[in-house]
Fold this sequence. Notes:
With 173 residues, the protein is mainly beta. The chain is 0% helix and 46% strand. The protein has strands at residues 11-15, 20-24, 31-34, 39-41, 46-49, 52-58, 77-84, 90-97, 99-104, 110-111, 123-128, 131-136, 143-146, 151-153, 158-161, 164-167. The strands form 3 sheets. The chain has an 8-stranded antiparallel sheet, with no helix packed on it. It has a 5-stranded mixed sheet with strand order 4-12-11-9-10, with no helix packed on it. Strands 1-2-14 form a 3-stranded antiparallel sheet, with no helix packed on it. The mean pLDDT is 89.
Amino acid sequence: MDDPFVARQQARIRFDGVSILAEDIGGGSGVFTRVRAERALAVGQEVRCGRQRLIFEVLMPAPPTTPRVWGSPEDGCRGRLVQVLEGGLRGNAFLLKEGENVLGRELGDVTFSGDGFVSGRHAVFTVRPDGVTLRDVGSSNGTFVRIDGPTPVGDGDQLLVGRHLLKLEVAQA
């Protein structure tokens, strides 16, 4: 493949005798699986929406006695999404407030108006006291999370590797 975002050896899909596992074996821009239902995000987890790569980070609240300074996070913000640019450089950071944070091309708290692969209303990041969840809200091109280690996949699951979308079809024995 002539995709600059895929390494010579990028992913491994194998049967372990019980289930099918997908694994990122390094290089390139990662291996992502499509979000089918709301799922919890781990700190440092990477997300793909359209052509955007975003990393979820937690913001620790400042102690109440700390004076506010220019550049301090806004009250009520518990996390942020940091855009990853080509070459791994960090781009814009988008604060996540308590409750729902909508990501989209046209509407939302986090918008990417120049990315034609992001739907008008694409995904929702929900910040709760016990963590952050992600769900796709009917986007055309899907919302994906980067896999970390061998990950079970099944019939109909979709993997995003570079610019390539792969659908797993399991034949019955």
